[in-house]
Each structure stands twice: as C-alpha cells, then as structure tokens.
Write a structure and sequence with these properties.
465 residues; alpha/beta; Amidase signature (AS) enzymes; 11-stranded mixed β-sheet; two-stranded antiparallel sheet; 40% helix; globular
C-alpha cells in the first residue's frame, strides 16, 4: 500500500494494519504530519498540530503493539475539534477571547486515549461554534478541499476538511445545530450525530441547553461505528455486538419515508440537485428491498422559533459570558450573545419542559416508518468570505436557508447521520440525511453501510489531497 492509499485507508483499516505489523505507529503518524505540513498551509484545517506529542504517543503505542497489546485504536491518529479540552492545550473556541489551557482532558479525549488513539492536533472552528462556515478574525478561513474557494462548512469545518484531504483518518466533531452533518455533507464524508449524551460532553455537559452531541466525521461507516464503540456511555442502551457489529449486519426490510419539507417559518429553497438525491436514494432503497413512501414530518409551527433558536442563542450567551476576554470577540459574535441574553432562565426552563411534547410530535412519524430521509442540506456551501461584512441577524437568516434540515433533531436529541451522494454540477459533494428513532444509531449505521456497499464513496478524493 502506497502512502496516499494508507493516508485514505480509514481508521478501522489502519488499526488492522497496525495490529498486523504492516505499518508502524510512528510511520503512520509521520505520514500525516508530513501531509499536514505540505497541504494544510493552503487548507487551514488545523488550528494547532501537536507534532512532538503525537510522535511520543506513536512511539509509546508501537511499544505496546510490539508487546502484543491490542486496543481498538492503538496507534491510530485522530484529530480533535477545538471546542474539546485536551490537557495542557488551549481550547480557543475559534477566538482570542479564550482562557488558560485546561489541566485535564475532556472525557471523550480520555476515552480515545484509553483506546490507544494518537491525538494529532486541534481543528479549526468558527468563533464559538456559531456558524456553518469556518472563518474567524483570529485564525482566518478554512477551505474546502474539493474547491478552496468554498467553505467546508461548520462548525466542525476543520475536522471535515482534515479527513476529506487525508490529513487525519478520523476526527472528533460536535453538533449543536448540524455542526457534524453540514461539513460532512459538503466535504463528502460520513458523519453521525449520535443520541444526546451517547458520547460524553464532560466537562461541558448540557451545552447549548441540551442541543449539542459529540460525534465522528469519517471516511467510512465502519470508522464511525468504531468511534462510537470506543467513546459511548456504556450505561446507555446500545446494540447487541456493539456499533461495529450493527454496521456489519445488513438491515432488515425497513420502512423508509422520504421528505424534502423544511420546518415551518423557515425560508429555504431546496435545490433541484439536493432534492433529486432524495428521490434517487428512494429508488435505490426500493431496489434493495425496502418499503419506501413519501411522507413529511409533522413539525409544529413552534419548531424553530419555540425550540431551536432560543436554545441555540441562549447557549451562545452562556458560552460567551464565562470567557475572560469578551472584548476580543468579533462584533457578530457579541451580537448573537446579546440576542441570547434576552432568553431568561425561566423562559429556557419553560422551553425545555416543552421538549417532550415537541419531540413526540416530530417523532410520531416513526409509528409508521423506521427511518426518515431528507436532503443533507438545501444547497451547496457558500464561498469563503460570503458573510464577511454582515451582522448577526442577516448572517443567521442567510445560513439557515442553506441548512434547514438539521437543528430540529438537536432539539429532540435523536440520532441522525449523513451519507455522501455524489457530486453536484460544481463538483462539490452532495449528501442525504438519515433520521433515526431515539437511541437507534444501529439502524442508521446498518442502512448507511448498505448504501455504502452499493454506492461506495471512500475512494472519491478531492483535488487538494
């Protein structure tokens, strides 16, 4: 296997190669460090690279491999989004307003290290993880490896760009309103927002009023399943045989609903290409033996303005108000925080108390179907710099029109995944979104793996790779 094939092999395959002695952990880490040094100055997917620490971790992993030790990710490099604490490394949240470096790893990092992962570095984010584009005053713009004039999405934009360009085999992301699924869609990756609290958020529990979940961005479904097996809360119900086992089993005959309806009171137009992807998926799934119908989710009129936006905006305010240098924040971020401050504790408590009824109405469709499929996004990504001179409200209105299908499921907490679906006329990736029942990542992984087997995407690579 040559170096390019190895770089794009994916985490699960690399773990097998390391265990077999086909490649060493130091050589694998050095491969990525060399690629990052060569490619990332143009891409800017990483905010910081832990080159020396990664080499030390790789050397230690190799000693354990040589001794016969076997762990799920022993010696496999992993990139980490810059809203997750890595001990002794600053968590900047894409801003110069941050405080000192944490002294302890976040719980998800502890679990990744326990599984043997080598932490490569921290990936770029928009300031305070607010936007579906990754551009900041402090650190500049991250570019989409498929076309560097476009954004990779956000807020896990650096994580997606790194994996898509072969600068990491797997990356940790977080998703508070689509922040894993949007960049996965626009970078041609598999991404999954697991069930709320499936992957620990500690020490940032209940982020954005319960909207945020940690999860992976990967080249293959198996890689994402492996990530979940390593990091999931073992006290939460999961599939028999683990998530890798679920991804390896073909699904039973499923009842699948297709919809391109956006939530009410959202102004968005789904492009013909993005709508066509849903219809094409329906034809494929019928050929694979599934029962496919067209049926819309019964979103209440309060979905966006009664659940999603208040929790999102108040979450931004909660994050901003604990920063030690708020005066350094971008004016647009300060504007979003000022809006979020308008939602009092009592108002948020009332909104969260209404979540159960909201979720029950959204999830009523699962009385009749097993999975719902929507477009991954309404349109393709914006060009880098498209929102540079706009304020908070105008930027929010424009970005929501591109990504209307994500945030409702952050408010309900249920698992959702995106599957690559070819390229649009501009040569940029398309995706479809798979929405699952609460706690049912297993069905999403099984169905996604079936689609992957019929329409492989992992060998598609961007020009900047």
């Amino acid at each position: 296997m040559d170096s390019i094939e190895l770089a794009f092999a994916g985490a699960a395959e690399q773990a097998r190669l390391l265990a077999a002695g086909t490649v060493t952990a130091p050589a694998l880490t050095d491969l990525y460090l060399e690629r990052i040094a060569r490619i990332d100055p143009e891409l800017r997917s990483y905010r910081v690279v832990f080159a020396d620490a990664a080499r030390r971790q790789a050397a230690a992993a190799q000693e354990r491999l040589d001794a016969g030790e076997r762990l799920p990710l022993l010696g496999v490099p992993v990139a980490v989004k810059d809203d997750v604490d890595v001990a002794e490394a600053t968590t900047t949240y894409g801003s110069s307003a941050h405080g000192p470096a944490p002294t302890k790893d976040a719980e998800v990092i502890r679990l990744l290290r326990e599984a043997g992962a080598v932490i490569l570095g921290k990936t770029a984010v928009p300031e305070m993880m607010i936007w579906p584009f990754t551009e900041t005053v402090t650190f500049g713009a991250t570019h989409n490896p498929w076309d560097i004039s476009y954004t990779p999405g956000g807020s896990s934009g650096g994580s997606a760009a790194a994996v898509a360009a072969g600068l990491a085999p797997m990356a940790l992301g977080s998703d508070g309103a689509g922040s894993i699924r949007i960049p996965a869609s626009w970078c041609g990756l598999f991404g999954i927002k697991p069930q709320r609290d499936r992957v620990p958020l500690a020490p940032h529990d209940d982020a954005w009023c319960g909207m945020v979940s940690n999860g992976p961005l990967t080249r293959t479904v198996e890689d994402a399943a492996l990530f979940l097996d390593v990091t999931c809360d073992k006290a939460m119900p999961g599939p028999e045989g683990g998530f890798v086992g679920a991804a390896s089993r073909p699904p039973n005959r499923l009842r699948i609903a297709l919809t391109t309806k956006v939530p009410p009171l959202v102004t968005a137009r789904v492009s013909a290409e993005h709508a066509a992807a849903v219809h094409q998926a329906g034809r494929l799934l019928r050929e694979l033996g599934h029962d496919v119908v067209f049926r819309d989710i019964d979103y209440p009129r309060t979905a966006v303005y009664g659940q999603v936006l208040p929790r999102y905006l108040r979450g931004i305010y909660d994050d901003v108000r604990v920063l030690p240098h708020q005066e350094r924040l971008d004016s647009r971020t300060r504007g979003m925080a000022r809006i979020g401050r308008m939602f009092s504790d009592a108002r948020i408590a009332k909104i969260r108390a209404a979540e159960a009824d909201f979720a029950a109405r959204v999830q009523a469709i699962f009385d009749d179907v097993d999975v719902v499929i929507t477009p991954g996004t309404a349109t393709g990504p914006s060009r880098v710099g498209a929102y540079r001179r706009l304020g908070a409200v105008s930027t929010l209105a424009l970005v929501v029109a591109r990504v209307p299908f994500q945030a409702a499921f952050n408010a309900t907490g249920q698992p959702v995944a995106v599957v690559p679906w070819g390229l649009d006329r501009a040569g940029l990736p398309l995706s479809i979104q798979l929405v699952g029942r609460p706690f049912d990542e297993a069905t999403l992984l099984s169905l996604a793996a079936e689609i992957e087997a019929d329409r492989p995407w992992a060998d598609r690579r961007p020009a900047l790779s």
